[in-house]
Every structure is written in structure tokens, then in C-alpha cells.
């Protein structure tokens, strides 16, 4: 039985104290976030994405989150290296044969990716339960660093803000990954879809964070990538290393993908978040981990962490007989931002049959998390509703590096809002 | 010696934000953030063509909107899908006909970006004109038609591609429009330019929900993006 713990949300009390002033303070918070931290995409579908709210948790609960994050980072590192050269298995986990071949041969640095984010729910017993690992292109760094700092200033509280270490630890993880490149790195590219305000803002923020490392950093759109004379170029400039803020699986059909991967495999381009970053993020790997949770390849502390934090997860093609699916969630291997996540008991028989036929789904035991109050728009003002807090926990290299909280519905989607997390009492 | 007064990007940002009234959740003025960070600057001469064409375009809208009876009515949402600087100037000119602008400019204004922002920043360098009251105003979403320009590969090799497509979360859906009392839309655009795919998809979706969408193609003067 875990020690019970709770998350406390503060907005409802702040709003009740000064309901007339609250929207004005909120506007000001949004404006400051836009100017100081590139958080100009601070509304979604007309609603405020950056909440004027804070969640707090106890020091003990935070310490357990840090321990879970760092241990699970080692678990995933070990799992990926155990799996990546098993081509048949990698194909079973959702990769096509060509990418499986690349995975087996790509050069990999000390980290699967310089930055990753584990998404947890706090269950009713006070235990952190892992929903997924975002290691390919994790978002939320601007929010974790910037929104928390601004909010602490705006509300005048002096709660410890553990996420303040994120910039430093992220930079250190990038430095170590860059130092492992087969050739010296002078110029680093950050590529994204510049047509998406959020993605491009993240790229600019990351560029600024990495500036102290001393490399020339070029930010460009996917359309600005080209291959010429054996070099990968961004905006016409040859790159030595590349960080993608673009999902690698969406690159598969891109005309540049073969040249890009040829350059990576030949050591002409150092991919900072290589294909293994997507393998680590693959939800099918969660099923593999669950099946191998008592393997001796995992030291006892890691076996214990899997058992404690990972909800029971199976490939849809390998369900144990008699499993009561009504207690499970169905997830596509590579779904992002809540896409293709369904409660099994809400799926029609036809949709369930389709998931089984396609095979690229896992089922994961549903985690019940105590509701957290949040402010939502109501006619003439705001009202308090209950939400679910999904707690992202960053790992930079091997170290815990910050929180990224989204308050939303039972399934966290891009319509959830962000509230910073502090440690209090 | 400076040729123009320094611009307070943060003050302008707040002023244009306030203009958006109840639609502030859809509002974006990212070029002003870039201006504050030194990524771009206003170029007054770049806005000269827009300043030359906007009065005639506004007059054409007033004539057609007046005849058809949709201009100035709060129940009709206007979408100005014109080159960005031109759209802002047209929206400001329509303030006298009960219109408030809602800027939708998510593009980052990098130097030599494919969606150029020098002219837009020049017109945003002044705050909006006196506007009608929030509650009874008609709102005009001001888009940047440059977002959908077709460009050759040679351009994309060396210029940051900041073109974009507006998605389902960038403009109000039928439910949001209904909640705000909007019963119809007027899409104002340059007749010589094709409908961009994103706007076509948006209006199709609204029509499926039974919302009338009026196409208002303008034949006004001037070069197109």
C-alpha cells in the first residue's frame, strides 16, 4: 500500500478572493508569458491554455516522483538496448522492416534522447502510475520553465519550484549527447514544422537555451532541409548535428528521409534524438516491459519500479484469456496528445475488432486519479469543475529535470490546460 | 539618426488584444513578439502598397456589405482573408461601421521568412483606431493570405518557411459561434486568389452545421501576394 498523497489546486481560492480582478491578472499572465518565454500560443480553441493556477504537492510525494522518473529512465534505456537489434520483435512493436533495420544500425549516444518526459497519474492510493513515456519530441519545456516562474512572481508565493533546474539540466544533457558525436560538431540544426506556432516557439526557446553551449544553432522548417554533396543542410547551411522537433514517424514518407538516415548511419550527421527515441516512446514497449518485469536483466530496484509504477499493459494481439477489458484503456502504439486513446468499454464491437485487426494497439489498465478542481469558463464568468491532473516528469540525461502539468478530462488531449507545480508543506 | 519613433511592442500587443473583445482566445499577434525580441522590425515603405489599396477595398466592402445588409451587424462574423497589412488597414477603416478587428497572425517574423512581416509590423506599429463598443460590435477576424502562398523549391532552400494552415482550433467552430450569437459569416477575399484549403475546409464545416457563409470576392486595386 502506497503512502497516500494529494495534489492541491489553488485557482478556485484565488478566484474566490478577487473574482473581478482575476481575469485581468490572468490576461497579464498570458501577455508576460508570450513576451518572456515564447508562450504566445497560450490559448487553444478560444480557451486559455495557460491557467492562472498552481498545483502543489508535498515534498515526500515529489521525492517519490523524482525517484520513479530516474529509475524508469534506466529501465527504458535498458529495455531499448535489449530490443533494438531484435528485428522481428521491433517489427512486432510497430516498426516497418526498413526502419527496424536502421534501428539496429544507427549510432546512439549516451542517452536515448537528451530530454524525455514520463507522464504519470497519481492514483487513489497516492502512487505514481505511468501512462506513457514521451522521449521522441517531448513538449512543455517553455511552460515548465517559464510559466512557473511567472506565476510564482504573479501570486507572490515562495513555494519551492523544482522545475527551475530544467534549463541547466537540459543543457548539460545536450552537451553530453553532442560530445558523443563521431565528428566534432560546429553547427546544430533544430528542425520543426514552422507552420505550427507551438512547435516553432519550442524550437526558438530551445535555441536560446542551448546558446551558452557555443554551437551555431540553426532553426528551420522541414521544407528547409535538403541533402547536397552528402551533407544534410538546413536553410542552405550544412549541419553536423540535428535535433528534431518533428515526429520521426511522420518523416518516413518524406523525400528526404532516405538521405537523412543515410547521413546518420554513415556518421555524417549526428541525430540527437535518434530512432531509438521513438522506440522508447512506443506504447508497445510498455507491453514488452510488463511481460519482462521480472527479467534478471533488470536489477531488483528496476523490477520493483516497473511493478509499482507501470499499469498492467498488453499487446492487443496477446491478451491473457478472460481479461476484463472494461477496466482497460486502448492506445495506439504511436498516438500522440491523446489521439487514438479509448476507454475499452466505450468502444463499439466494430471498433474493437478493427483495433485487433490492425494490431497496432495496446490495452493498459485504467488508472483512477482523484479529481482536481479547475476553473472553466461559464456564462458570465468562471466556475469550478473537476479535472484530471496528468503530471509530466522530465528526465534530462539521467537526472530528473522538471514537471509539466496538464489539467484536463479523463483522457489528456491538446484541449487540457497547463498549471505549474510547486512543492508546499 | 533614428528615422522613426521607437515602438513599444508590449503596449501595442495589449492594445490590439483588447480590440478582440470576447474573441481574444483566438487572437494572435506573434509578429509583435518577434519585434520585441529584435527578430524583425517594421518597414514603413513595405506597407505603402497596402496603404494605397486599403481605402478602395474598404469602400468596396462598405458598398457590398451595405447593399447586402451584413456590414456592422454583430450577428455576422466577418473574415478578412487579405494580405496581412492590407487586412489590418481595411479592418481599421471599417471601425466606423461598427467593426472590431481580431488579429490571427501566428507567424514568426524571422528575417527572410516566407511569410514576410515588415509591412504588417509597420501597420501594427500604431494602435487600433477608436473602436465601437465591445458588446454590440461586429467582429472581423483578420487573417494573412500570405500563409497559403505557393513557393518554388529554390526559395524554400534558403528562406525559413513560415507558411501555415489554420487548423480546427484556430477559428471558432459552429458551437462557439452559436454561443456568441453569430448566425452567419462573410468571407472577404481577393477575387483573383483561389480559396485557401484551410478556409475552404473551415467554411465547409460551418455549412454542414447550417451556418450561412457568404463569399465576398473583392476586385480592388493593387498587387497580390
Describe it for me?
The complex is a heterodimer of chains A (425) and B (225). Chain A is of the alpha+beta class. In chain A, 36% of the residues lie in helices and 25% in strands. In chain A, helix 3 (59-83) packs across helix 12. Chain A is globular. The model of chain A has no long low-confidence stretch (mean pLDDT 93). Chain B has 225 residues and is α/β, with parallel strands linked by helices. Chain B has one domain (9-218). Chain B is globular and about 45 Å long. Classes of the chains: A alpha+beta (425), B alpha/beta (225). Chain A binds chain B through residues 27, 31, 34-35, 38, 40-41, 43-48, 194-197, 200-201, 204, 219-224, 226, 233, 235-236, 414, and chain B through 9-10, 13-14, 17, 23-28, 30, 33, 36, 106-108, 147, 156-165, 168-169, 172-173, 176.
What is the string of helix and strand elements of chain B?
A: HEHHEHEHEHHEHE
Rounded Rg of chain B:
17 Å
* Terminus-to-terminus distance of chain B: 33 Å
Tally of DSSP helical segments of chain A = 13
Strand order of the largest sheet of chain B: 1-3-4-2-5-6
| Percentage of residues in strands of chain A | 25-35%
General shape of chain B? globular
Helical percentage of chain A: 25-40%
Low-confidence stretches of chain B: none
Q: By helix and strand content of chain B, what is the structural category? A: alpha/beta
